[in-house]
C-alpha cells in the first residue's frame, strides 16, 4: 500500500497557487463583466479601457507576479543563479506592470491631480516607487560583479525584509482600492450592498488577504528542499 505525504511548505504552495488563480478569475470577471462600474465621467471608450486595465495590471501583473517571484526560491529546482535570474525577471515584469498600471490612471481627461487625492493613490505611488528602488538595489547588490560576498551577506536580510514589506504594502493598497471603489459605487446607488458585483469584490479582497498570508508564510518558513512526494511503502 502506498501512502503519499506532502510537506507543509508544499501544501502552502498549492494553497497560494489556488488563491492566486481565484484572485485572477475574480478580478477578470469584475473588470470585464461589470465594465459599467469602471465608466469614467467622460464615458469615452479610451478612458474605459484605461479604467479597466488598472485593476488587471495592478492585481494580476503587479501583485500575483511579484508573489510568484517570491515563491521561486522555494519551488524552482536548479542552481542558485537560475533562481535569482527567474526571480529578477519576474520582479522586473511585475514592476513594469505596476508602472503601466499607475500610468493608466493618469491618462484621463481630468489629469494627474484628479487621481492623486486618496490614501489608495498615495500608497500606490509609494509602493511602486519602493518596489522600483528595491529591484534596482537587488540587481546591483546581487548581480554586480564588483560586489564582494560580505556586502551581499549584509544586504540580504534587508533585501528580504523590504521585499516582503513592499509586497504586503501592495496588498494593503489593493484592499484600500477595492474598499474605495465599492464604497463609491454603493454610495452612488450604482450597485446594491447585496449584489453579485459586491460579492465578487469582497471575495477578491478576501482572496488577496489569503494569498498574501500564504506567500509571506512560505517566504519566512525554514528552508528545506520541497519533495514532490514522499512514498512510504508498508506491507
TrEMBL record:
Keywords for the protein's UniProt record, in alphabetical order: Electron transport, Heme, Iron, Membrane, Metal-binding, Transmembrane, Transmembrane helix, Transport
Gene Ontology terms for molecular function: metal ion binding; transmembrane ascorbate ferrireductase activity
Enzyme class label: translocase
GO CC annotation terms, alphabetical: membrane
Residues passing through the membrane, by range: 9-32, 52-73, 85-103, 123-143, 155-179, 199-220
EC number: 7.2.1.3
InterPro entries listed in its UniProt record: CYB561/CYBRD1-like, Cyt_b561/ferric_Rdtase_TM
Subcellular location: Membrane
Co-factor requirement: heme b
Cytochrome b561 domain mapped to chain residues: 15-220
Membrane topology: Multi-pass membrane protein
Main location: membrane
One Pfam family it belongs to: Cytochrom_B561
SMART domains attached to this UniProt entry: B561 (SM00665)
Catalytic function, reaction form: Fe(3+)(out) + L-ascorbate(in) = monodehydro-L-ascorbate radical(in) + Fe(2+)(out) + H(+)
Protein name as it appears in the record: ascorbate ferrireductase (transmembrane)
